Amino acid sequence: MVLAVESLNRLLHCWILLISLIFVVNGQFPTTLEGPFKPVTVPVNYSIIGQVTSLPVDDNPPLSPEIEFQPQQISLSLSSDLSSVWVSWITGEYQIGDDIEPLDPQSVASVVQYGVYKSGRNNLAAGSSFIYSQQYPNEDLNNYTSGIIHRVLVTGLDPDTMYEYQCGDPSIPAMSEVHYFRTMPSPPKDYPSRVAVVGGLGLTYNTSTTISHMAANHPDLALLVGDLSFADLYCKNGTLCDFQNCSFPQSPLQETYQPRWDHWGRFMQILTVTVPTMVIEGDHEIEKQADNLTFTAYNYRFAFPSDESGSTLYYSFNAADQYKWLERDLFNVNRSVTPWLVAAWHPPWYSTYKDHYREAECMRVQMEELLYKHGVDIVFNGHVKAYERSNRVYNYTLDPCGPVHITVGSGGNEMNLTLEHADEPGNCPDPSNTPDRFMGGFCGFNFTSGPAAGNFCWNEQPEYSAYRESSFGYGILEVKNQTHALWMWYRNQDRYSVGADGIYIVRQPDRCPS
């Protein structure tokens, strides 16, 4: 469940820009060189806490294609090769019920017509198509078969270049409108300017604000750190429900309303049709079904640069057994070419909120030393429905060479925000209840040193927690050069251009392991 996002790795050579950067660093935002910082907890703004309202999807015209087999849910994602981009879309309508007949994937072609912006779409790329099903052995649960999912790898692209494209089947004809994207730059010219990071999206009015604000900030790449559609929180009639209200609350197969994925994909197209978007699986993507199949919708609906890892559940890309894959992948990184090393997975190691507190402790125990030894700079997580940024930390100890851990799991979701902290009186969880029920294992032991020695929780905000806040929003990582990257956290209640938390993360390659 690890995503090593490498190749935020381009170097600015413009002396004037570097002078400007130094001014901004000293005049507006703090840097990690000035840390560690005293912990800050932003008071809860209760005006934004309330009933989470799902977007109406049944009578929203943009959610349905105008003609048969017109492409919908169009999305871009990166390949492992910077000269290639995946284009994915769906044609035809899903089917749900007992007596359903799957669509024929071979009945519609998978074609992308593309070219450099304003030079004509004279190039063609063809790909593959398929469907997937979500099936249940229980009576009264609705089986589901997707529309036809198309996937095309467009190759031979020039770096840092604007392209225009259409996708679909030109023989019907059923082609999309003309859309645009820009390829990633290549070293040593420049860095990707803006990488948006968010988790816990769902399909609510909060989601709509998050994505509209994000799009207005013009990211070059989007990273979604799990908990995407929350289809598993919806019952067979399409209404939001909890586990006890589902049709079969005692069943090991979790009820999930798959059309929610289609609604979510159609909505997200306002971002994904122009911004390459990389996804990581969260616990809400598990969706266990008949024959113990899991992650079916996640595996089929998204394209991954997974050739190196052999799995859609952990992979790396240049932008950019699991432990052995990660060890090999980190060993092969050339830090003179890839100075920035960013990792992302779903459950956080350094969250101080009560929900999911130390839930992934066994993962941290097994893998943290490996990431530290290879000089990982930043770690992004979701899962917790709140925002938190750490000081540089390693093994719960302040360390100038440890990564900055950032939890950004409150993009919109269907479950409201997480408010309580584990260090507040009466909130420390029972250690026996903390292990993740899917990953298993127990590593929730008391601290043996430091201010919390002998306890499972701190009795105040831990020193490794620099900033925490319960608000909906997202962040943008802007890599400036080999050593400086600006991180900004944007809240939905603010204007899209106003950041609530900002810091320059500064690498020290001469001091720290790499």
Automatic annotation (TrEMBL):
Its cofactor is Fe cation; Zn(2+). It catalyses: a phosphate monoester + H2O = an alcohol + phosphate. Its EC number is 3.1.3.2. Keywords: Glycoprotein, Hydrolase, Iron, Signal, Zinc. It is an enzyme of class 3 (hydrolase). InterPro entries: Calcineurin-like_PHP (IPR004843), Metallo-depent_PP-like (IPR029052), MPP_PAP (IPR041792), PAPs-like (IPR039331), PAPs_C (IPR025733), PAPs_N (IPR015914), Purple_acid_Pase-like_N (IPR008963). Residues 202-384 form the Calcineurin-like phosphoesterase domain. Residues 71-183 form the Purple acid phosphatase N-terminal domain. Belongs to the metallophosphoesterase superfamily. Purple acid phosphatase family. This is Purple acid phosphatase. The lineage of its organism: Eukaryota, Viridiplantae, Streptophyta, Embryophyta, Tracheophyta. The gene is LOC107890491.
